[in-house]
Structures are given as C-alpha cells and as structure tokens.
Amino acid sequence: MTDRTPAIDERRLWSDLMALAEITDTARPWTRRSFTPLFDQGRDWLRRRFAEAGLAVRLDAAANLFGRLEGSEPGRPVVMLGSHSDSVPSGGRFDGPAGVIAALEVARALRESGRTLRHPLEVVDCLAEEPSDFGLSCIGSRAMAGLLAPEMLDYRGPGGERLGDAIDRVGGDTARLAGARRSDVAAFLELHIEQGVVLERSRTDIGIVTGIVGIVRLELVFLGEAAHAGTMPMAMRRDAGVAAARLVGFVSERAQALAQLGRGYVVATTGVIEVAPNAINVVPQRGRVVVDVRAEDAALLDAFVAEIEAEARRIAEATATVVERCATLSRATPAACDPRLRALLAEGAAACGLSSLSLPSGAGHDAAFLSRVAPAAMVFVPCREGRSHTPEEWAEPAAIAAGAATMLEAVLRFDTQAAG
Ligand SMILES: [Zn+2]
C-alpha cells in the first residue's frame, strides 16, 4: 500500500448504512431492538464488515462490539470512535448506526491510505444505548465507565429474563464485568445525528457538542380531598388538580427564566399529569406529575430540582393539600465534552471547508458515560426537520460523510499532537 491522504468514501459509507438498516423488523421499519435475534443479525453483519476492513473483532464482557487497528507505538492508549446499532421500536436508520458506520469508514480510510496511527484505533458498537426492555439505557457504555452496578444485572426483561443473562446471551461475560471498564482510552469521539433543528435552520454542516445534559426525573403527588363540584364552596376546597396545575406552570416558567442566565442549556417538561378521580363533577383528590429536568450545569440542575420541591410544598400549603410523594425516579449527571477534542473537531471541520458551531446535546448518548473515564466529544450532523425516533428520520449522505471527514481530521491531529 502506498501512503496517501486518508479520505472518506461517501458512497461506501452510505451503502453500508443502508445495508445495516435493511436488517429490520419488516412489519415496523426501522426496528432493531437490543437483545433480539435481529440485533444479533445486525451485529453479525457488522462483525463481517469490521473484519473485511482489516479490524480485529472482539466482544468485551459487557457485549460491546469492537474492531481494532493496532497503532505503531505499542502501549499507547486507544482512540475510540463509535455509537450504537440498536434502535427504538419503529425508529430511524441513523440514530446510532450513523456513528458506528462513520467510525468504521474512518478506520477504513486510514488503513487504505497506508497510514498507521501511533495510537491503536477502536471502532465500537456500544450495547443497548436505547432504553431496552430491561428499563435501562446505555448498558454497554455504562459498563465501560464501571457504572453498570451489580443490582442492575438483576433487572428483569421479557419473560422474566435477567439483564445479566441477556448480556451473556449476546456474547458478554458478566461474571467478569469489571474487565469491561476502560482506563486505556485517550479519546472517544461519537458522531450522531443532531435530533434537533439548530444545524438545519442555521445551514451549518457540523455541530460540535459542548456538553450532554444531566437529566433528573421527579415524581410529585399532591393529596387533597374529593368533593362535589357543585356544592363545595371555593374557599373550602382542597383541590389537588389545582396544585398539580400550578406546579406545571412553575416548572415551565422557571425553566424559561433559568435558560436566560447564560449558564448553559436548561429545559424542563411535565410530560405526565394525572388527576384522580378524573371526573367532570368531582374536585380532584389526587394530582400526580412527573417532571423531566435537563441542564448542562450540574449545580444549576440540582438547584432547579430543589426549587421545584420547595415550590411544591408552598403550593400544597396554598391549596390546603399535602405533598404525598416527592421522589427522584432517575438521575444522570451532566457530561462536559473535552475542550481539546472540541477544538480539534473545529479545526478538522475548517480543514474540510465545513462550517461548524457549538451546541449542547439535550439527549443522552454513550459519550456521556465514556466521558467519565476518558476525554470525550461529539460531532452532530444535521437531520431533516430534527425528526428522530421515527421512520421518517433522515440525514443526507453528504452530511454524514462530512461528519466522518471531520472526525478523521480530528483523529489525525490528535494522533500527531499527542505527547511523547
Ligand atoms: Zn442514539
């Protein structure tokens, strides 16, 4: 092989992405759920493609799939690129697979150019990034961060199967789960469709992610007293529906105010609102809301959640109800992307003649977990109307190739600039 400048092959990248997409539940495209026979088929296909690209293929103890190219300097830490190949039910062809195939294309471009990096390069398909039937997301990247706790392996899925058994069934070895934890990664890069409209609306080629939001899900239940809607005077009511509604208003207004502070991205959504008995002529006895709060800044996220809890108590007092339940259902801390990798991505985009901007990620990603154990960053590419988790999800071939080229440039720069 002669030494040439490594270049992304857009046609090859696209045809691989479309070929992987064809491995779908045909009754509801595009569906390839983790732990299903289709997921295994997708992985068999990926293994073949990795091997054909000259990558050494292996699964780790958490059933993450890797293809590895050795570097020229033994003992150097790994440059890792990738995303996930699983989908939500009736999802798209790009959320996840675009990042896996783009990573594969970067490895192929390097190998074909005859250029050997100083660092080993690993392409990864992280296991089960989407919320699986076991009620857990980012299973593989969680394990690489050492955060797949033993009790999580006992979560039950379809037919009562243990998560640990399911991981072993798809090639993992959960008896040796600690072996999946990584401390040898110098850099992790993940390409992903934006799943939003910022890039498309600003006609920008590349998004460089500043950070991945932390997410807290808070359940609050107000308890009042059911009463006749006609005979109970207003002043004597204990209306749990009113309490819940006031909280919904507070969450939205406060999030809008916090978003103006300049302390990063903040959003909050009350997506679950229930009243009981939910009858037209009855003052609600019970009001239940579940709030999803997201922010880039960890301190701001915690402070906002504490404010919501305090406001709930104030509202209860004002409405003569009580806060019967106030519980954190889940909590994920924000993950900042590595400033040096972000700068390399920006340089890489510019070198390719591409426009770029910085933006936060309002959705969770494998990179959030990898960032616990390695410098990590993300490349976003535009997708049509921001639509995702739907069969209509779409990204242009050239847009994905531009993202892959940006990643390739960043990898080359990282590899040359690394100390030693
Ligand atoms: Zn994804």
Description:
The structure is a single chain. The protein has 420 residues and is an alpha/beta fold. The chain is built from eleven helices and 15 strands. Strands 1, 2, 3, 4, 5, 6, 13, 14 and 15 form a nine-stranded mixed β-sheet that branches. Helix 9 packs across helix 11. It is elongated, with a radius of gyration of 24 Å. Bound molecules: zinc ion. Zinc ion (ZN) binds next to loops.
Throw out a few tags for this protein.
binds zinc ion; nine-stranded mixed beta sheet; 420 residues; 11 helices; alpha/beta
Mean pLDDT: 96
Low-confidence stretches: none
Q: How far do the termini sit from each other?
A: 27 Å
**Relative strand content:** 15-25%
Bound compounds: zinc ion
**Class per helix and strand makeup:** alpha/beta
- Report the sheet with the most strands, covering strand number, pairing sense and barrel closure: 9 strands, mixed
Number of strands: 15
Number of helices: 11
Order of helices and strands: HHEEEHEHHEHEEEHEEEHEEHEHEH
Provide the helix percentage. Answer: 25-40%
Q: What general form does the structure show?
A: elongated
| Rg over C-alpha atoms, rounded to the nearest angstrom | 24 Å
Subunit structure: Homodimer.
Domain Peptidase M20 dimerisation: 211-317
Pfam families: M20_dimer, Peptidase_M20
Family: Belongs to the peptidase M20 family.
